[in-house]
Amino acid sequence: MKSRFALTVVLAFSLGQFATAGNWPAWRADLAGSAETTESGLPTSWSADNNVKWRTALPDRGNSTPVIWGDKVFVTQVVEDDDFRSLMCFNRKNGKLIWQKGVKYSEKEPSHRTNPYCSASPVTDGKRVIVTFASAGVFCYDMDGKLLWRRDLGRQHHTWGNASSPLLYKDLCILYHGPGPGSFMVGMDKFTGKTVWKFDEPNWKIGKRTDGFQGNEARGIVGSFSTPIIVKADGRDELIMSFPMEMRGFNPETGSELWNCKGLNPLVYCSPVYHDGVVVAMGGYYGNSMAVRIGGSGDVTRTHRLWHKVRHNGGIGSGVAKDGHIYYPNSGGTGFCVNIKTGEEIWSNKLAGKSRQTGAWGSPVLAGDTIYFMNQGGDTLVYKADTKFKQVAANPIGEKSNSSIVFSDGDVFIRTHKALWCIGKK
């Protein structure tokens, strides 16, 4: 019995950290970016004055999502007036600030007015927590806030800033340092920060559009805001990243390319979504969408691409998958259910909240057969992961948010532009 338990533990951590009851160690919960919890009995109804365990004010706005390990909640936070980029650590039981560490960075770095600095979420393995502050560097702290190492990966320069979050795989911290000129993906030793491998993203030159793209893409704005994922295919681990124009698969230990698939558009906001041997990639704002069967070699556009849609309906938020379907929102707050292997749209429905601001930047999360999704007005819409649309609840808290919610020990954690919230049954 003891040896069987030990084997189970080894297998559970063979791909690094995963979201278990109580822990939510990365932006999308685990290496595969599932945004799914095994917890049950989570609250489905709350408001600003109902089922709130605590609310802690934050010093400035922010788009990142909290991560949780044990009794600690970690949030990246900019203080714009002070040019301060930081990581904050809170007590998950009462919301009190334990420590805040960071760096002052006053050099000019472009970003969209709705995308403040520190939009990338942290990642932790319970011994260290790693965060990227873009041009200000990558920082690794222990759980008590002691700086273990820092890296300067160079300037990031994109008119809309950045958002890609780091992930931990075995002894590596993997990060996409982009978008913008000279973007790359890097695997760093998580103990020292030293570079183990590096992949330089091709620099796409977008000229006069002849393939249906309009607006910003027609003006040559190119970039990816995606966070990579790691999945297992035919006995091997694959690191998968959505770049401008294409999706690529890598060996996560060496950074060597395994396969590539063409069909995306110049601007990519969503992270890949994996389910049952298939990964879906989406551009945003009427960008392209495609599904690819993983496990290939070389250019798999003709052999492994299952479906491809030009000027599709994706948005900024990344989807969740269950029972052969992917569920995702567009930027206007409409939800979609699509067959993941055929691309057939099963339903689309407005996710009706109580706020006037129904737009959507956040990503949905999954608990059993229930999806939780927060719009920009601070309403969390709860609906079923089913081939027939059924909304369960609309829970307003009255504060703007571009973040995604997370779960921990039966509680729901929400980050808004004003505060960090813990929702749960008292």
Can you put this structure into words, describing what you see?
With 426 residues, the protein is mainly beta. Helix content is 3%, strand content 41%. It contains one helix and 36 strands. The chain has one helix at residues 2-12; strands spanning 36-37, 52-57, 67-69, 72-79, 84-91, 97-104, 123-124, 128-132, 138-142, 147-151, 167-169, 172-177, 184-189, 195-200, 223-224, 229-233, 236-243, 246-250, 257-262, 267-268, 273-275, 278-282, 289-293, 298-299, 305-309, 320-322, 325-329, 334-339, 345-350, 365-367, 370-374, 379-384, 391-396, 406-408, 411-415, 419-423. Strands 1-30-31-32-33 form a five-stranded mixed beta sheet, with no helix packed on it. A five-stranded mixed beta sheet has the order 16-17-18-19-24, with no helix packed on it. The longest helix is centred in the first third of the chain and has 11 residues, at 2-12. It is globular, with a radius of gyration of 20 Å. The two termini are 38 Å apart. The model is unreliable at 1-18 and 207-211 (pLDDT under 50).
Structure annotation, total helices: 1
**Helical amount among residues, as a percent range?**
under 10%
Instruction: Indicate the structural class.
Output: mainly beta
Largest sheet: 5 strands, mixed
Terminal-residue CA separation: 38 Å
Strand arrangement, major sheet: 1-30-31-32-33
Q: Give the overall shape, derived from the CA principal axes.
A: globular
- DSSP strand count: 36
Strand content: 35-45%
Which runs of at least 5 residues are low in confidence (pLDDT < 50)? 1-18, 207-211
Radius of gyration: 20 Å
Q: Mean of residue pLDDT?
A: 92
